[in-house]
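dumping these here so i dont lose them again. two proteins, back to back, each one seq then structure tokens. dont judge the mess
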Amino acid sequence: DLIYCGRKLRDDQTLDFYGIQPGSTVHVLRKSWPEPDQKPEPVDKVAAVREFRVLHTALHSSPAYRDAVFKMLGNKESLDQIIVATPGLSSDPVALGVLQDKDLFSVFADPNMLDT
């Protein structure tokens, strides 16, 4: 959506119709689409523990891998792509907080933190 002087601009009108002059500020608002309701699939705890062990080992044994993961999570565009590709993630403030904090991410990636 485009906003000028507190009004939403309609697609069928020209900028002249709204009296927009060169140098005027028009704000762009990104639409957020509601996520479809999806029932979460049951988690295979054994497979989850195995995956978290691999992630944890890679994060702690390879500085290059760790730096690449944290660089990706620190990039807003990359994080937005992860959020869009993961159903339910945008409505989970805890998971979003973990992805945005390196220390929390490292703690939560520890397989010993899983409830097995």
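---- next one ----
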Amino acid sequence: MSEQKTKVEAAIDATYLVTPKQLRHASTRRSNRKVEEIRGLLRALALEKGPGRQLPTIRELCTLFNTSSATLTAALDLLETENIIHRKERQGIFVATSINRKNIHVLFNASSLSNVGQSPFWSILLANLLKESEQHANFKNEQYHFHFLWQPHGQTLSAEYINLLKISQADACILIGANARYQDHTSALQIPHVTFAGGGDITVQVAFQESDQQALHWLVQQGCKKIACIEPIYRTQSSESCQKLFQRLLPGLGLSVYPELFRQASILPSPYGRELTYQEQGYMVTKELFTSFREHRPDGMYIADDMMASGALVAWEELGLRPGGDIKIISHVTPGSPILFGKTRAMATIEIEPIDIVRALFSLLDTAMASDYKPDDVEYFIRPRLRPPSA
């Protein structure tokens, strides 16, 4: 008897003891699903009718879609917000003239901007993205929506943003610092998309290995025998470290490898109780290399980050060493950045243009949107430019 009572009580608990709040939530979910369904049907009808054409009346639409006027009105409100339709008082519902406008979403990982001690590369890249999207919007039938997310660099796009793209009926998207692939390499997005500093069907990358090879060959051409290199950790997360590359190539050039002259600056301990800026790291590494290894003091140095090069220049000045004279220097620079302005006359530079990255993203997205989109693995590399010293 007690067992039977327990079963009855369990059935009552599961079936009848539902709070009013739970009922409202369930009702809301059903209502939202119905609004989304009607919204999709209305959107399809508007696309079929074409720009400027009139849609049926509210009563006719309710009959056509077998729905209530409240649900239909909610769906119409959403479509009017998206500029798909517009309502004229006493005239009816009309398809917007901009119905064929492409909605393109740009998702930018703002964690790239969080470290004030990093190169201004990311802020310059963002400025170019904003400028290029404005130009496209002015001359093409496209509308751009920017979203700033915060997550570890290169991590798969969160479900929140994947749903955002679905709900907003995005036609395409550009991802900066986020991955459009799951761990099993399946695609998280079914719309045309391009990525930078992440992963996806179409990926734009900087040819870091080519820039490292350019730097090495330039230093060898200058007669350098003891070559040092410092690089930030973000380089080695996405490509072969310059240390491994140099260790592989130097013997073939008849030169010795000095492992103690290679540094990943980000692993340095901070004496200040905070994360070191890249300038401070460049300063400390350079000071160490040129005071601790007098027997193997470098005669050539490659610096894979402009902020680190800025710190290294301060160290050389304190040590009384002349770049271009006592030591040959080649460094990455970001065109448009003020970090090394007026300081590169005696050093070679490797330029990586943010605008080249942005133009490649837009060009590749245009191509993907213009054809039948078939997800694939496409990699496009931005080639660096080497500029010799001007002094």
